Amino acid sequence: MSTPIRLQYLELKQRYPDTILFFRLGDFYETFDDDARLVAGELQITLTSKPMGKDLRVPLAGVPYHSIDGHVAKLVGRGYRVAICEQLADPATVKGIVPRDVVRVVTAGTVTADASLEASAPNYLAALVRRKGDTAVALADITTGEVRLASGGEAEAELARSAPAELLVEDPLDQPPGNTGTVVARPQLSPLAVEAALAAQFGDHASTSLTGNEAEAAALAHLITYLRETYAAALGALQRVRRVAPAGVLTIDQRTLRNLDVLPQPGRTSSLLEVLNRAKSHMGSRLLRDWLTHPLRDEAAITARFDAVAWALAHPLERERCQAVLRGMPDIERILGRVGARSANPRDLAALRDGLRAALELGARLPREDLPVVLGESLHGLAAASEALLTLDAALDDDPPAGFDEGGVIRPGFSPEIDSLRALTRDARGYLLGLERLERERAGIKTLKVGHNRVFGYYIEVSASNAALVPAHYQRRQTLVGAERYVTEELKEHESRLVGARDRLVELEKQAFSQLIESLAAGLAALQAVAAAVALIDLTLGLGEVAGERGYVRPTFTEDVVRISAGRHPVVEAALGPGRFVPNDCTLDDDCQLMILTGPNMSGKSTFLRQVALIALMAQAGSFVPAEEACLPLFDRIFTRIGAQDDLAAGQSTFMVEMVETAQILHQATPRSLVILDEVGRGTSTFDGMAIARSVVEFLHNRKEVAARTLFATHYHELTTLESVLPRVRNAHVAVREQGTEVVFEHRIVPGPSDRSYGIHVARLAGLPAAVVSRAEHLLVELESSGARPGMNGHEPRQPALFGGPSPVEETLAHLDVDGLTPIEAIQKLYELRAAARGRGGSPTR
Ligand code: ADP
Ligand code: MG
Does ligand 1 lie within 6 Å of residue 425's CB atom? Predict the structure, then answer.
């Protein structure tokens, strides 16, 4: 026979089978059975057991109620789902078993505890739906109440950019590329269920007013129904739904974000986000991440951002005065999320009050006149803070505790009832304290004391030596070593009055507090607008600060020409320190649609390519850019592909991946796109790679509908001959200076093809023994004088030997990937070549 509590537990556990169930028992959250074993191991806490029926001991592991957040954070972080079961009534007031239920299932996408969240990044729950050829994604960050929808081609891109912690899908086999979050399969919703879910959350007709198609409606409905099952209260925080308009944003896929180091990622030292982030609040930092992952295409909107950044740059004193307020600004956006979910505690609201006060102060420090539109509108948005501030100030004590047990949450003067109860408890307490003096006189015992403990409540204590003097109406309660404790009728009466008043007081404070939350929640949208305004001001001021400090300029937009003078790579420049980065120009226009960039390893090819893409991305995000002057078209997409061998971070260095991605570019690029190809074709043998590289160049050049601005870095010198065949192809190379026998990389990009390969010099730099290097130099001279290096003398480029070549040795040499070889491989290759030339061992391998 199990105990009733055991039965209650089993019933709940059955309803939440795929979770770890934390069961509230008094001051602890307990887990049982297999959950207990698992939790004990994962959290390193003691596994014990508990009798829960006749002849029944159950494994048990528990944590104190106040430390539950951290433990749940750990478990959710490791991929578990955690159900939180609460006591729904005060055990003291219930006869028999306390009613309990699961109030919340915490999952990766629905965590709200600070311990689980990164302050400067959003935490998304996402749903992906494919219907009748439409794809849609809905995203919600319940910590802030943000909801976003995207569909069509933008859906998967949005998913990749937002990196949701948890993804709901209808088809369990649907694993969108690059998704790293937990995937949860959900049953399809009927059209009726979709309608109902949307109407319940956003009002009637929501499905037509908020969503663009059936798939979007279904995705949004999935979010709502899932939240209803896991954390229904969070629905209160979801207010506005934003649709990502495909024509509005510059599409950057996840691979490009990674190739360009836009966001921080494990194993990389820095990122664009970190270099640009001068936001003083977490709200500003999160908004910067949003801007960098959703650059715009609408010139007016970008220009408006530039105006704000320019203002901040031109007004350093005003900027710093504002930033002083932003520093230490509480995260009102996330507190408002908790207000919406009705889970905010008194301290949260005190922080909200501080934040709103700071928001008004921020507004006061911005000048009224001559403000750019973005800042002017934000200033306007801040004004909504004042009403809520009044409400908060009237009700909330100056320094409230986090909980209600000690009282002191509600400000004196707010509620007459609370005030009079407080007076009553004060009186009762005062009376009890005064009683000590009174009883000493009455009983004539000088050492008599009135005290209090948790078990017996108030008592009168008399030392054992005086026990004989105790009046008859004293009732003995407890005997200690050397003392006796008593109560009197009078004491008991006052005590019960005190306790009653105190309980009632806690009750009333809770009530007043939840009314306060309700009134704030009623104006949630306006308050969220305050948070948004703070974020926007914070971010643009920060962008002005970084622009000033690093010498960034305001870009201009043109129809279709890229003209960057003295451009720099923002992240590499920041890492190298001031003055060490070598700036480079870049021009892409009707004359040069596609630049082929050659140069030895480590000379700066990849850096140059990425810097052009980063400058374009920064500009469209609304930031100033690292250059002396930048004139850019408004790109629709930025693609970057890095040859498989170079893309070590991907961990999937297969030629197949490289080709799949190249295919994507060729399918999706438009004349308004920017394409960065870095050593594409490298993942395969020389002939294949070069052939593919060449045909990719031809395709991008010759097809009108895909004629994207392209930068192509390659170690295939043969490709430089394309300049003479394809009118809009131009060669450039990285200048290299020879100093004696040393090679100096100047990192300067200059026109024309590179005319030498520096493999041997690099071998020397790498510390290959001198004898090996000089032998290799000798061999090189021999090989060059025999004319075996077609197209390498820079004067009369021949057609690539791909289209015909003499002996196998010459052919191999012609296509030898000298830059791509390790020194050891180079030597091995030389031995092979020699063997082949001497007629032994057949033709060399490639
Ligand atoms: P490649 O792609 O030609 O092999 P990278 O672009 O990877 O060369 O550059 C190699 C290193 O050279 C970079 O890590 C950077 O430290 C340095 N570098 C590249 N470009 C510059 C530059 N313009 N100014 C200063 N240092 C540079
Ligand atoms: Mg490179």
Answer: no
